[in-house]
Amino acid sequence: MLREVTTNEWFTIIFLISLGILAFTKYVHTNRFHDFIALLVNSKYLKIYARDQKFIDQFDALLFGNLILSGSVFIFISYQSVLKPVEFDLVFFLKILTVLGIVLLIKVLIERLIGSVFELDALIDEYVFQKTSYKNYTGLFLLPVNVIFLYAVTLTEMWLYIVLGLIFLINFMGFVTTFKSNQKLILSNFFYFILYLCALEIGPYVIMFKVLDI
After folding, report:
1. What is the rounded CA–CA span in Å between residue 157 and residue 159?
2. Residue 108: pLDDT above 50?
3. At what angle are helices 121-151 and 9-28 packed, to 10 degrees?
4. For the segment 109-156, what is each residue's pLDDT rounded down to a tens digit?
5. Rounded to 10 degrees, what is the CA torsion of 31, 32, 37, 43?
């Protein structure tokens, strides 16, 4: 079903910002960006760049910016198209943007704190890098998806489930990569691993949607 033409000036501005971020990232980190694009088909990116991780990495930070922008747009248009038809509300959008950004940042900080407390810095750094890479790839995936559903095709419930399924698949691939890398450690601490999933992988998103009242 083709979408009716609507005024989306704010979304256009957001898309241009995201494209600017990606263009700048590609310009400054050309080789790394090309390796990142191939993340889903080979592990070259993870093997090469995991060794060079910093606490604040410019490449990841730039892609994180695109992630929260694209993620916020997707949450808004999903809410608008499937749950409650509303006009664009900048305050509500900024609320989504802020809450999403804070949730993702706090998760990373807590994970790094856990690594420091239990002297597992190397392991946690690798885990956070892998997970962050797949999340940033999700942001890359959502950019064209958002454009399609805002300017061409109406986001229906069926399309929403398809996109959510693809997002889950991208991040599940990251989960499998992490599991394979740390299989012995995870299996020997399986209860704590499940506890971690509930506390830091599921809980924060439940809280986020409660805060947003979605």
Report:
1. 5
2. yes
3. 140
4. 887 777 676 666 667 777 888 889 999 999 999 999 999 999 888 899
5. 110
Give, in order, the Cα–Cα distances in Å from 143 to each of 23, 50, 69: 13, 25, 9
The contacts of residue 146 (CB under 8 Å, 6+ apart) are 11, 15, 70, 73, 74, 77
Please name the residue ranges forming H helices in the chain: 9-28, 30-37, 44-49, 58-78, 90-117, 121-151, 157-181, 183-188, 190-196, 203-212
CB 1 within 8 A of CB 154: yes
- pTM reported for the whole predicted model: 0.86
pLDDT tens digit string along 18-46?
999 999 999 999 999 999 999 998 888 98
Residues 39-82: pLDDT tens digits?
998 888 988 887 777 767 899 999 999 999 999 999 999 988 88
**What three-state secondary structure class fits 2?**
strand
Tokens 């991780």, located at residue: 53
> What are the distances in angstroms from CA 90 to CA 2, 8, 19, 159, 207?
25, 12, 20, 25, 22
